[in-house]
Amino acid sequence: MATLGLKGGPELLAMIDQLPDQIVRKVLRGGLRAGAVVIARRARLNVHRKSGITAKSIKVKTGTEAGQPRAWVKLSGTA
Predict the structure, then answer these.
(1) Residue 71, class by beta-carbon neighbours within 10 Å (0-12 exposed, 13-18 middle, 19+ buried)?
(2) Predicted confidence (pLDDT) per residue in 31-62, tens digit
(3) Phi and psi at residue 71, in whole multiples of 5°?
């Protein structure tokens, strides 16, 4: 069993709290995008394929909604 020690945890959290909101939003958005990409890849693998159009139309989008960073996994294209 491994043990992990962290020194300066409260100080680190205090420094993060002092970061400008714009930087925090950018970091969160990047993390959300990374998670959404994992979901999109898995969705592409689970799609039944004949032509591959549906798998190719699975897209990741990031943005803000009500001032909060968001990530979406969507089907794009024309119906």
Answers:
(1) buried
(2) 999 999 999 999 999 998 888 889 999 999 99
(3) -135, 140
